[in-house]
Amino acid sequence: MKKISILFAAVVMFMSFGVAKAQKIATVDVDAILNIMPEKIKADEQLKAFSTAKQAELEKAATAFQTEVQKYQEGAAKLTPQQREAKEAELGKTSQQLQQMQQAAQKDLAEKSDAAYAPIDKRINDAITRAAKANGYDFIFDSATRGLIYKAGPDATPAVKKELGL
C-alpha cells in the first residue's frame, strides 16, 4: 500500500511539471493603436462626412414636414371634415416616410461602418497574431477590457505597432 502511495505521489508530481509550464501572457492597448492608424482616421472622417450629409437630408425633410403641419394647423378650421381627414392621412403618410428615411439612414451608416472597419480589424488582428508568434506569447489580452483583472506581464503594444509599421 505504501508503494502505491509513493508511486501515485511521483506520478502526480511528474504530471504537475507539465501543467506548470510558464505561459507568456501580454497585454495590448488596441484602442491606442487604432487611434493612430491612418486608415482608421480616414475611415472615421469618411463616416463622419456621410453621417453629416444624411443628417442634413433628414433635417431638411423634417423641416418641410413641420412647415406642412403648421400650415395645416393654421387652416384646419376652414377645411371640411373630409378635407381635414384627407390632409391628416397625408401627414401621417409623410410622417411614416420620415421614419423610414431615418431607419434607412441608420442602416446605411451601419453598413458603411462595417465595410470601412472590417479590413482595419483584420489588419490589427493579423498584426497581433504575428507579434504574438514573434515574441512567443501564449495569450494577449486587450488592456482596455474590463475582463482583465491583473496586468503585470509584458505589453505587446510596441510589437504590434512595429508589425503595422506605425
TrEMBL record:
Coiled coil ranges: none
SUPFAM superfamilies named in the record: OmpH-like
Source superkingdom: Bacteria
Keyword Ligase set for record: no
Keywords: Signal
Signal peptide: 1-22
UniProt-annotated stretches for the region Disordered: 81-105
InterPro entries for this protein: Chaperone_Skp, Skp_dom_sf
Feature: compositional bias, Low complexity: 96-105
PANTHER family the UniProt entry points to: CHAPERONE PROTEIN SKP
UniProt similarity note: Belongs to the Skp family.
This protein's name: Outer membrane protein
Species name: Cloacibacterium rupense
